Amino acid sequence: MGTGRLYAAVAVSGFRRYATYRVATAAGVFTNTVFGLILAYTYIALWDERPGLGGYDQAQALTYVWLGQGLHSAVAVMGGGFEDELADRIRTGDIAIDLYRPADLQAWWLAADAGRAAFQLLGRGVVPMLFGGLFFTLALPSDLGTWAAFLVAVWLGVLVSFAIRYLVALSAFWFMDGAGVQQLVGLAGIFFSGLLLPLNVFPGVLGEVARVLPWSALMQAPADVLLGERTGFGLLGTYAFQASWAFALLAAGRLLQSVATRRVVVQGG
Amino acid sequence: MAEPPTGTEERAAAPDAWADVTPLRDGLRAYLLIAGMWVRSTMAYRASFAMTAFGNFAATALDFVAILLMFSRVDELGGYSLGEVAFLYGLSSTAFGLTDLAIGSMDRLGRRVRDGTLDTLLVRPVPVLAQVAADRFALRRLGRVTQGLLVLGYALAVLDIEWTAAKVLLMPVMVVSGAAVFAAVFVAGGAFQFVAQDASEVQNSFTYGGTTLLQYPPTVFAKELVRGVTFVLPLAFVNWLPGLYVLGRPYPLDLPQWVAFLPPPVAAVCCALAGLAWRAGLRSYRSTGS
């Protein structure tokens, strides 16, 4: 089996694994829709008070809400997906088996996570967006080009999200209980991805810092592309920003992995 | 036939008279025992407890930070000042935090149904509800209660409320009744998980979603939504109706003022309905059999 085909098969099985739980997916969509509804009304109140806040008009702000609800499970803002599993394998020592498999550890999990993200983008993304579109006035682009550009930004966001969570999972080599690190990174994700409030509404220095952190590549960047705030060189700049974080964090993951595997002692001999 | 009852008859009748009370007392005792066990096991790793409690605190605090960030850009939201929003936020968060602390593990019920471990609970001579509620009792959830109380304290410090005896009395009554309303939602959600095992996330939209909704003033939301949480799922009785009375603000729906004092009976009705739902759910349970 060629390497490409191997990872493609892993990605497909990742997709199918999440597609199995239909009731759970429906429940998740329902919850996202309820939270979307609550956020949408608070944003309406906020933008009524200050039209044009953060450079968005009200329709753009509402689009941001529903986009966020549709997107946050695909880019795994709150964590979830593979990192618990990998951390568990590190803790139990099963990682030793993974390490002598003829496949690259990082690429394997990346493929599995890409499959998950693809399913969650479709399974959990489309319905909240449609609901939002039906009941609120959204500012969705009409040209296919912007949608295509948006999808590229989403995939770069998934890549950055994976790279962050890979680092979190690898921390299990050093901490017997990785819950603390996971919780901390999860909190940072919720806050700095812009899930609670768009990052361009963050005031002053906090906003400037939030916008250059890797989490802004997860949701804020794809949202800005879809809302038509990034075109031409601006679009390339956004891609470059996302890709640099993805590259840097994936490289850090590889480095950490090589350090970890050199010092790993598998329990139980 | 009009003889006074003899001593033996009285003793024979006693178990029946107690039948409704004893399970409740037994259940409460079992709940405390199981919760105490989890607290002892948590305290075996004190550093871990301190960290996760802080994490719980920080996670809920971020909600409020988002509100603070909003108010860094605006002076009012839906006509309410930061202090007033903090007041509603603190009440909702404290009431929900108490429930979350007491029975927050109810949302794990679906998993127990799925993997078959619920059967273990059924054979024990203790009410299932008490066991499920105390399962993995997490003292770290004090973090949320603490955060809610701090925000409420801040609100009381900055707001200039015209206190009356009724308002002062209403404050603790409101928090306790609110916690009971949320508890009813948790239990009803648990009952729903007997039917739809994978759908535990639906419960989150009414529990976590409910408390998030109540953190904002009702004027922010559409009238239909406010009507829904007033008359259908009476979450508005947690903090909106009584809280707005304390603040001296009109409720967006045209309701008489005494409605603000209804949280205790509303909570009692909710709990009774949730209890019925729980019984129905438990009766409909069929083990996986694998």
UniProtKB/TrEMBL annotation, chain A:
Coiled coil: none
Sequence intervals crossing the membrane: 21-44, 64-82, 121-141, 147-175, 187-213, 233-253
A Pfam family annotated for this UniProt entry: ABC2_membrane_6
Keywords: Membrane, Transmembrane, Transmembrane helix
Top-level lineage group: Bacteria
Name by which UniProt lists this protein: ABC transporter permease
Organism encoding this protein: Streptomyces fructofermentans
TrEMBL record, chain B:
Ranges annotated as spanning the membrane: 47-71, 86-104, 145-163, 169-196, 225-246, 258-278
Keyword Metal-binding found: no
UniProt organism field: Streptomyces fructofermentans
Alphabetic keyword roster: Membrane, Transmembrane, Transmembrane helix
Protein name stated in the entry: Transporter
